[in-house]
Predict the 3D structure of the following.
Amino acid sequence: MIPGKIYGNCIVINSLPADASGYEPDPSAEVYYEVVRVMESRFLFLPDHLERLKKSLQKSGMDYPGDETILQSLKRLISDAPEKTGNVRISLYKNPEGQMNCVVHFVTHFYPTEEMYEKGVRTLTFQHTRPRPGVKKWDADFRKRVNDFIAGNKIYEAILQNEDGTITEGSRSNIFFISRTGDIVSAPSQVILQGITRKYVIEIIQNLNVPLKESLIHPEHLDRFESCFITGTSPKVLPVYALDHVSFNAGNPLLRSIMDAFNSLVGKHLTIL
């Protein structure tokens, strides 16, 4: 089954509508994917997502089918589906005949509440090292384990730790820390899946002339930081009030400035098909 529970009854395969209830692709296929936020039929950061999808395939020695098939599939989905806002998954995989299939559909999502944006969310560390950080490829075993961990502990997100214990990123987000002197720290780009939201947040940080350092952080050093936040397709920029036993200030003025700046630029990066 293509990863991510299909939301609604619409699914499009290679630009053509299909029966979502009876859709069963090859479960052994290697699936490369992106999840794009849709806001009133407009796709957020769509060119960035397509570029990252292209790079994931190229790094895996696979040919990218080109933007046109994907764009036509997305256009058909938005036209046919009653949903006009939510998250859409783009999946690329080869069928048994070796042909590349493009499958798009809405997936279930959870956006943070206003209270979460105000007070922050609770997170816990989770042991996992991405085998190929720069490639967005579906890993069903990892996703099940981490989803069970998140649900079982009633937390918003699991923060990944490498084998050496250092913190890298969230299971579906990137993470930043604000020091007590106002500097910002995030994990090195080469050891994480570089999020699209992360890219624009880094630009905001640079425009604010705030020092940004890429460095791995050990949990023992978390108390050196005043604030923490995660970034991603669904959370956008979301404060963290706790990571394991360490508490953070969700109302940090710099954090609030970053949140406001990100929300302001969203409207400039919406694509209508």
